[in-house]
Design a protein that fits this description.
448 residues, globular, single chain
Length: 448
């Protein structure tokens, strides 16, 4: 029964790759759609091979509290197969977070490199620290008798992925045109709001399995209640964060049209807000009452929204707000877990709950430092070798045709004489294509 439960939730979590793919595809320009879809597709394949060869052994093999040393290339007991699959899809999730932060200008070989390093080494070692019984964050050796609290990975998965995305975005630099000459951000709109919305819905669905499935068993007394509590708290936190985010956006953002200022209700900000709330609740989803999840989600909305604004202010180009949604909201989740725990700081004020918070902050610092050192080194080497970023010419034309030869929207689909024009752009007239589109009739722009 436990094996069936773990495999079922793992397959649902695997579907989150589809959610990431749609969300990211909708949020980038049409000329980069094939590229971003292929990267999300390969995340699962690369994670599968890397975790089979090295990752699982480093995370759950026999060894000390820092890293495991057995079980390479699947040499572990068969009764661990369901556990391997569950942990592999978590590793794939951590890697996929990074693709959003470096979208539309990252070389494909660089993508393959960071995906392998993250899923084979960087993320598994963090997993060892926090989720293996011998891990130094949970064995009580740092603060006697106190364990790091992170039920479903606010820190292990999301802070790790968010820090990796931040390192990549900083070293890669912003997309051409993302900031003007004075440093002010210039919006670069994605090409499909429906695709982004569909991806958001799939990710929300996947989070129920992501958090509920982290109980890992269903046959023991109390398992059913724990799983149900985790799922219910996930929707409460996500809902609170989504509603709060859209209200914040309404209050702080306005659009100028015809010399008048209009406040707006943003779909894409709301999607990210919901996801931030679900990320934040990961750490304590199984130990909070519903009011605690509500508070966690409300605070997560503010943290997400203003972190995204700060990242933009610092001239860091993060197309999918991966740093804010995963890194910042995950950090808040590690604080919220001991704060709103049913036996936590606000409920009991005990010394032990304060020590758990201290342990979580130690764990957060370790995860950030470990991930930053590895990713900054890796991305720095790729940059020095000039294999990190595509050329300016290819970035302007889009990655789909030069890199893959497979445009997401074939020229034959346009009709009305535009097929010949788009075919010419495929042959190297991408810049001219942009200028022609800007002067084209509105109806044609809308169709494209």
């Amino acid at each position: 029964m436990d094996t069936f439960f773990v495999l079922t939730v793992s397959m649902i979590i695997f579907l989150m790759q589809c959610g990431f793919a749609f969300l990211e595809a909708g949020a980038v320009r049409s000329k980069n759609t094939t590229n971003i879809l292929l990267k999300n597709l390969l995340d699962s394949s690369v994670a599968g091979l890397s975790y089979y060869a090295l990752g699982y052994a480093f995370a759950f093999g026999k060894g000390g509290g820092f890293i495991g040393g057995s079980g390479f290339f699947g040499s572990f007991d068969e009764d661990e197969l369901s556990k391997w699959f569950f942990q592999m899809v978590f590793a794939a999730t951590a890697a996929t977070i990074v693709s959003g932060g470096v979208a539309e200008r990252c070389e494909f070989i660089a993508y393959l490199t960071y995906s392998i390093v993250l899923t084979a080494f960087c993320y598994p070692v963090v997993t060892r620290w926090a989720w293996h019984s011998n891990g130094w964050l949970v064995d009580g050796s740092v603060i006697e008798g106190v364990a790091y609290q992170d039920f479903a990975g606010s820190g292990v998965v999301h802070v790790c992925g968010g820090v990796a995305a931040l390192c990549g975005a900083v070293l890669l630099g912003p997309r051409i045109g993302r900031f003007n000459s004075s440093g002010k951000p210039v919006p670069i709109a994605g090409h499909s709001v429906p695709l982004a919305a569909l991806g958001g819905f799939i990710l929300m669905f996947g989070f129920f399995a992501f958090n509920g499935g982290s109980q890992f068993t269903i046959s023991n007394p109390g398992d059913g209640v724990a799983v149900a509590r985790a799922i219910v708290n996930t929707i409460i936190s996500g809902s609170a964060s989504g509603v709060t985010t859209i209200l914040i956006h309404r209050a702080f953002t306005s659009t100028k049209r015809n010399c008048l200022q209009y406040s707006t209700w943003s779909l894409l900000s709301t999607i990210n807000g919901i996801l931030a709330g679900m990320v934040a609740i990961c750490a304590g989803a199984n130990v909070m009452q519903m009011w605690g999840a509500l508070c966690t989600g409300i605070v997560a909305a503010f943290i997400y929204y203003f972190t995204a604004a700060l990242v933009s202010k610092l001239r860091i180009d993060d197309p999918l707000d991966a740093v804010a949604v995963h890194g910042a909201a995950g950090t808040w989740g590690l604080i919220a877990a001991p704060l709103f725990d049913m036996n936590g700081i606000l409920m009991t004020g005990s010394k032990e709950s304060g020590q758990v918070l201290a342990m979580n902050l130690i764990g957060w610092l370790a995860i950030v430092a470990w991930t930053a050192v590895i990713c900054a080194t890796m991305f720095g080497i790729l940059k020095a070798l000039k294999t990190f970023r595509v050329s300016e010419d290819i970035e302007l034309k889009g990655l789909d045709i030069p890199k893959h030869g497979e445009p997401a929207y074939p020229s034959e689909a346009w009709g009305d004489g535009w097929g010949e024009f788009l075919q010419a752009s495929h042959e190297g007239l991408g810049i001219q294509r942009q200028s022609k589109l800007e002067s084209a009739p509105v109806s044609v722009q809308e169709r494209i």
